[in-house]
Automatic annotation (TrEMBL):
It is a multi-pass membrane protein. Keywords: Membrane, NAD, Translocase, Transmembrane, Transmembrane helix, Transport. It comes from Digitaria exilis. It is found in: Membrane. GO terms for biological process: ATP synthesis coupled electron transport; electron transport coupled proton transport. Belongs to the complex I subunit 5 family. The chain crosses the membrane at residues 7-25, 31-53, 65-86, 106-125, 146-167, 173-198. This is NADH:quinone oxidoreductase/Mrp antiporter transmembrane domain-containing protein.
Amino acid sequence: MSHDEGYLRFFVYISFFNTAMLGLVTSSNLIQIYFFWELVGMCSYLLIGLWFTRPIAASACQKAFVTNRVGDFGLLLGILGFFWITGSLEFRDLFKIANNWIPNNGINSLLTTLCAFLLFLGAVAKSAQFPLHVWLPDAMEGPTPISALIHAATMVAAGIFLIARLLPLFISLPLIMSFISLVGTITLFLGANSGFFLGSFRKKLEWNNIDSYRGKSSLLTQTLYLEDRDRGRGKNRNEINKE
């Protein structure tokens, strides 16, 4: 890329992207998460479309931008919903709901489930899970370092990070945990089988990446949900023995 016209822009965008990702993983509340989440999305649009004079690259960055906006809108609605429920955007307040209010029917579980689903929708788009996975295979149109950064290293992992960050909330909502596992399993199956019908080696790598991260999402939720369920059964068993 030493003679590329976008050489300086490349390093500006990639530094901005790394800063946004660092801010995302160190955020302590949902408003910070959303702010850096949007910065990551903007940087990915600029990086995928670095060679915007090529029509296929311009189309790929637009597809990534539009698809991620669907998830980001859901994430914003979920954040506003939980702010209306709790009056706070801090993670500790959300987790207090999960530990105290939801098990005791202290709040409307249907509304809480809907808001949690909207939060998960943001993770679905960012981590390219079904049905918002369509942007990721085309994102290889940027330079190779960008493809590695977006596909293998950070951006698609941001969606899995959000799921893991909100697991104390999700795990108190069995319907959401089941839905996360279902979406992860469908995407896992889709990614594992789509590679058989593609002739391009790069396309096979893209679908393999979709497959691996969605497998992590499904495995993460299923494992922790089963552990929490077994812990609850053990607690009930101890209470019965005491009686």
